[in-house]
Amino acid sequence: MNPKTVPAGDYTRQLLSNMKLLPQFESRLILAEDVRQVLDYVRRAEVDAGIVYASDLTVAGNQVAVAARAAEELHEPITYPIAIIKESRNREAAMQFVELVRSAEGQSILNKYGFLSPR
């Protein structure tokens, strides 16, 4: 992925760099605009492999195979911050949404789609 357009590009560069593989593969990398584009390239067999978020694999079903999972220590932590906008016109609904996401039910839904719960 293109580090200029998505954080996944930065994580990918960190991963390859920390594995000492970036120099070997850098000239052969195809920079997609986002993770879903990488996944589409892999699904259509237009590339040999791609690096994507585990959560994006749920949309691919059995059309792609997982070759390996990146060890967490090989890249910065991947986070999805959640916040309420200070000037929100729907503050109560926003608070209810944040509470749902953080609840056991919300975490169960996110886990179903490949997201890990916060530690």
One letter per element, helices H and strands E, the order comes to HHHHH
Task: Please outline the major beta sheet.
Answer: none
Number of helices: 5
The averaged pLDDT comes out at: 90
Structural class: mainly alpha
The whole-angstrom Rg is 17 Å
Estimate the strand proportion: under 5%
Which term fits the overall shape?
Answer: elongated
Q: Indicate how many domains the architecture comprises.
A: 2
Low-confidence sequence ranges: none
- Give the number of DSSP strands: 0
Helix content: 25-40%
Our measurement of the CA-to-CA distance between the termini, rounded to an integer number of angstroms, reads 27 Å
Q: Would you write up a description of this structure?
A:
This protein has helices at residues 7-18, 22-25, 35-43, 91-102, 104-112. The chain is an all-alpha fold and 119 residues long. It folds into 2 domains: 7-74, no CATH class; 79-119, no CATH class. Helix 4 crosses helix 5 (104-112). The longest helix has 12 residues, at 7-18.
In short:
The protein is mainly α and 119 residues long.
Keywords:
119 residues, mainly alpha, 2 domains
Protein topology:
Blueprint: H1 7-18, H2 22-25, H3 35-43, H4 91-102, H5 104-112
